[in-house]
Amino acid sequence: MTDVSAAASCAGEQLLRQAAAEQPPTTESQALLQRAVPYFRKAADTTHDVATKKRALEQLELIFDEHHLDAPRDADPVLRELIALQPGDLESILRLAKLQERQELFDAAEQTLLAAHQRAPADVAPYQALAQFFASRAAALSEEADRQRRANVVPGASEPGTRDAPDKDGIYSLGGAVVPPRQISAIVMPVTPEIAAAGITGSVSLEVVIDETGSVADAHLVRPAPLLENTAVATVRQWRFEPATLDGKPVPVRMNVVLNVRQ
Questions:
Q1: Is the pLDDT of residue 11 over 60?
Q2: What are the residues facing 249 on neighbouring strands?
Q3: Contact 198, 131 (CB under 8 A)
Q4: In this structure, are residues 208 and 236 in contact, taking their beta carbons and an 8 Å threshold?
Q5: pLDDT per residue over 182-236, tens digit each?
Q6: CA neighbor of 15 nearest in space, from 33, 3, 1
Q7: SS3 for 170?
Q8: Is residue 225 within 8 Å of 232, Cβ to Cβ?
Q9: Residue 69 predicted with pLDDT over 50
C-alpha cells in the first residue's frame, strides 16, 4: 500500500465509524458517508495491492448499498471492478445480479446469473440463485397477470370458464355442474442429480388437461421453475384419474395440480 492509499483509506474508515455512531441514521451520517466516498476511491486508485484495492472497493459498495446511501447506479461499476479484480469470485457476480434485479433490470440479472453458472458449472450457488430469481420473477408476473385479469372483469359478469360450456378446444373448467376428476394414482417425482445439487424443495403448481379416459393429456408449469420443468411435466403425465363428468358423461377438464418436491 502506498502512503497516499493508506492515508486515504484511514480517512475513509474514520468517516465510516463516525457515520455508524449516528443511530438512527441522520442527515449528518449521510453527509459523512458522502465524504468517505472520494477517500475510498482514491485508496483503490492509488494502490497496486489486490487486497488493499479489494478492501477499498468493498467499502464503496457498502456505502452505496440500500442500508446506507442507497445508490445502486453507483454501486454497479464498483461491483464490476471487484469482479474484474478477482474474476473467480462468484460472490461479487451474484451480488451484481441482485443489484440488477433490485433496479428491475431483469434481463441483465438473468444474463449475469447464467454467466456465473457458465463460469462455475459445478458450483451449487449459481443454481440456487437462478432458482430464487426465477421463483421471484414468476411470482411477480403471476401477481401482475391476476391484477390485469381482475381489472378486465366486468362487474356482475361471469369469468370465462365458470359456466358449463367448453372452451374453444372443447375442454371444460371445474365448477357448475362439472363433477371434478378423482385422482387414483400419483407417481412421485424422481430427484435428479441437478435438483439434488441445488437443494430444491417445496411444491410445483402445474396446469393439466385430463381427458375423458382420466389420462393427463397436457401439462405445463404455472410458474417457471429452473431444473424442474421437464421432470415435473413427465411425472404428472403418468398420473391417472377417474375422469370428470357432466350430466353423467366423461368430459375433458383443465385444472391445477400440485407436485411436491422432496429430497
A1: yes
A2: 246
A3: yes
A4: yes
A5: 999 888 877 777 777 667 666 788 899 999 999 999 998 887 676 777 888 889 9
A6: 33
A7: coil
A8: yes
A9: yes
- For the record, the C-alpha cell of 120 comes out as 462455475
Looking at 65-105, list the stretches that DSSP marks H as alpha helix, in order from N- to C-terminal side. 72-85, 90-102
What 3-state DSSP class applies to 260? strand
Strands 244-246 and 249-251, by their bridges, are antiparallel
In sequence order, the 6+-apart residues with CB closer than 8 A to the CB of 255 are 173, 174, 180, 181, 207, 208, 210
Stretch 29-33: mean pLDDT, rounded? Answer: 94
Q: What percent of the chain has pLDDT over 90?
A: 58
Q: Write out pLDDT tens, residues 35-65.
A: 999 999 999 999 999 999 999 999 999 999 9
- Which domains, and CATH codes, for the chain? 3-135 (1.25.40.10), 172-261 (3.30.2420.10)
Q: Alpha-carbon distance 62 to 55, whole Å? A: 11
DSSP 3-15: HHHHHHHHHHHHH
Alpha helices in the chain (DSSP H): 3-21, 27-45, 50-64, 72-85, 90-102, 106-119, 124-151, 193-198, 229-236
How far apart CA 252 and CA 184 sit, in angstroms, is 16
pLDDT number for residue 149 = 64
Beta strands of 150-248 (E only): which ranges? 172-173, 182-185, 202-210, 216-221, 240-242, 244-246
* Cell digits of residue 81: 471492478
State the pTM of this model.
0.58
